[in-house]
Design brief:
The protein has 224 residues and is an all-beta fold. The chain has no helices and 13 strands. An eleven-stranded antiparallel sheet has the order 1-2-3-4-6-7-8-9-11-12-13, with no helix packed on it. 11% of the residues are buried. About 3% of the residues have low confidence.
Length: 224
Amino acid sequence: NNINHSAESFFLRSSLQVHPEVTVGLESTASLTRYDKSGSSVGSNQNGLNDNDAYTVGPYVTFTPGQFFQVTARGGFSTYQFQQSSASVQTSSQNSWYAGLNVRHQPVEWMAYSLEAGHEVQLGTQSDLTEDWYVRPNINWKFIRGIDFGTGFFYEHGKQGVGNIAGNLTENYDWYGGNLAVTHQLTSRLSVGLNYRLTLRSSDISNNEYTQNLVGLQMTYYPK
């Protein structure tokens, strides 16, 4: 219950094509998050996290030398302004930065890959704020007619409790693993997929370490 919340999110982007293969621009976001205070004392959420307003602004550039290759780089300033709406968690407002690199390439008809890497600050689940570095490569294969294979890996190194003053979890963690997906198009409107994901989490708090195996069956219907 401590993370039940609503959020109003806004996104604005402007762009300018300076070359047939290069687009530059400026993007900005705003997110207004309010945590559920039902069942708590008047004017405060005893066990919840703090209400906040978050803003980012920064430039980006996209390089597209061909139909099957694209690189996007972005970076900028981010700020999280916290209101003291929690009776137990005290966290200060934080100014930080973000950066990201996204590469998408299909060198041959039967294989495509992508890579995401960067630095970000985001809301936490056990603390008001989390700061992390991440890398997420993925490869899609189509070497059997009618069947798509997807393989992916991820690694994230982060810190929970950024700006912590009192009552907030402080933790350094590593989160990594991989996934495998097999999808078959049964008809023009129906596909079925089998997914497996392995997640491992290490932490300087031993009780927060775990290994997770997730198996899923997914059916997708495409209407007219």
